[in-house]
Structure formats: structure tokens, C-alpha cells
Write a structure and sequence with these properties.
It is a lipid-anchor. The protein has twelve helices and 13 strands. Strands 1, 2, 3, 4, 5, 6, 7, 8 and 9 form a nine-stranded mixed β-sheet that branches. It has a four-stranded mixed β-sheet with strand order 10-11-12-13. β1 and β2 form a beta hairpin. The longest helix is centred in the C-terminal third of the chain and has 30 residues.
Amino acid sequence: MRSKRPGLLAAIICLLLLTGCWDRRELNDRLFELGSGVDWLGDGKLLLIGQFMIPTKTGEAGGGEKQSYFIETGIGTTVSTCLLDLQLKLSRKITRGHRNNIYIGEEMAKVGISNLMDSVTRDPDSRLKSDIWVVKGGSALSFMQMSYPLEKMPAIALSKLRHSIGKRTGNSLLELLIEQNVEGSGPTLPAVEIIYDTKLRKKTIQLYGRAILNRKEQLAGYFDRLESVYRLWVTGETDNIPVTVVLSDGKGTFNANVRNPNNEIRTAVEDGRVNIEVDLKGNGVVLESIPALDLRNPEHLRLYETELNHHIETAVWNAIQKAQKQFKVDVFHFGKALNRQHPEDWAALKSNWEQAFSDAKVTVHSHVKLRRIGLQGPPPNIE
């Protein structure tokens, strides 16, 4: 019987070789970046901004109002050269595994972000779930220098604020990469801005809406917050839609919330022109009514439903027209629907889809039902 000892000894040696960390980096040698920003300086120069967590010593946690972050910059002609310039100013190795947000200044977005995305996706340290934001009317540096009283790290604030946009999912790098592979579709990114509160006499940050990018990933324009929400309804990416309706007689307004929104898109091609029909459905909840109408009365309820659906049809159609005529970018996935429903027509149109989308005839139908009127008896403001 042959001895098994040589084989066992070889297995033990192999296991010993597999243990340990050959490229170990101590935490004391790392600097955690929680936010990045890129601005266009002109003449081919970029400004790379990093927001870093200040390392704390043992026993310092929770002790006072000491700032927990600092900002450093690097300049270069590419992201890689900017990063090298930035790293040369820091005694610790930059680590991006915890980066929450990437900010893009408006001028940088106008030039185009495709090269930026190339550098980000090639970096194995980048998080695919990092949110990407366009700073409307400003620079990434000015935005990242803003403090936020509710969070020690301002970069974390937007990660929480994005939930108020109404999307079921985030606004991450991964989503942008997926959108790039949807034929005919233009990507969008959430837009933020710095505003001055005249009452409080201070600057603050707020969500604006969506930045619309063309197929070359250059900024084409913006949707405001409501236009952005209506877009999400058409693409089926939201579950909550606020609506403020001005009555057609001009005698008041009412607010409603559309829940469980559904959508259906039908496409056809007739004489070379694309026809698109958008059907929108959902359940409405009346939140506030300025006219003192008793909505338990079926006639009043039908009046509000008619006004609500007319408002939705007009608002959504206007948003689609803005994308067609002003941006010439399909951000509603109509090309994707045409490809799915009529692949032969799509094959003939996809090479010139921007123009075909711009010339398409779009019809919007809304069928929202008011299911809840928010009261147990007559409204308190009824006369």
C-alpha cells in the first residue's frame, strides 16, 4: 500500500500559499472618497474634485462639531492625469469603494461625458451604484463646497434626497450603462442646483429634475421636476405622481396623487411616419381642494376626474413635445417599443431615429379614476 503522506504534504503546502494578502494595504494608508466631481475649465482642461472623509483618531468619534470631510482638486487634460495631480497632494491612497455620488458641472455636461464614463468604468475601484448628478447652472466644485446641516458628509445627503424623485430605482452608473445599450434612447441624469432662499438669506441645494443627454452623451436640456415624473410614468419607472390641477373655469385648483400608475404604448408606421399612442392609468387620491365641492356628489366627482385627466394628457403631451422638438432625444423608450412591436419598421428607421422621433405623431390618453376623496363627511370649507 502506497503512503499518502507525500500527497497530504503537498496539499498542506498549497493551502499555505493561498492564505494571506499579497497586496495588503493598511487602513492607515487609505483615504476614502465619498464624492467626486468634474468641471470643464476650457482649453481642454478638466478639474477633478474629491470629497474625502477625514480619518478620526481613537476616542474622537462623536466629539463636537469638527468637520468630518475635506475637498481636494486635481487639474489635467484627462481624468487619469487629473487623478494623478490629485493623488500627489494626498499622503494616503485614494479608495473609491465607498463613493456615493459623482457630480458633473453644467459646462462639462455640455462638452460631453462619454470620456468620463470610460475612465470610471475602467477603474476597478469604482462602484457601479454610484449616483451621477448634473449641476444645473453651476459647477461641481461650487456644489460640493456646499454644507448640509442634516448630514456630516454632504455627499450622503443627495443619496437620501434622490428617493423623493419618485423613481423605483436609483440613478446609478449601472443604469446609465444599461441606457446606453437601448437603441434609439437618450440617457438622462438627475439634475440638482444651488438656490438662494431669500427668506432665510442663505444658499441651499435642491433637486431640479432630469438632465437630458443626446446619443453622444452631451447635455441637450432639462426636464423640471414634474416633467421628469411624467416621463417616469410613460417609461413605467414610478409608483407615485403628484398632480396640481387648475380648473378650466379658473375658479380654483385641487391637488391629487396618482398611485399604482400603469402605462401602455402602441406604435405604428403609416406612410413612413411613426404614430405613437400612450395610454395612462392609475388610481387618484384627492389631497386638497380649494373649491368647496362635496365630492360625494357623483357629478362633482366626474367633473374632477375629467379635469384631472385633461390636465394629465396636456402635461404629458407637452413633455413629449419638448423632447421631440427642443431636444430631439427619445427619453421615453418609444424606439424600444417600436422595435418590440414592429421590428421590420424599426430596422428601416433606427439609423435615422432622431428625426423619425422628432416627426412622430403622439397621442396621449389618460384614464385615471379618483378612488379616494380624503374625507368622512362634507368638506369643512363648504358653505
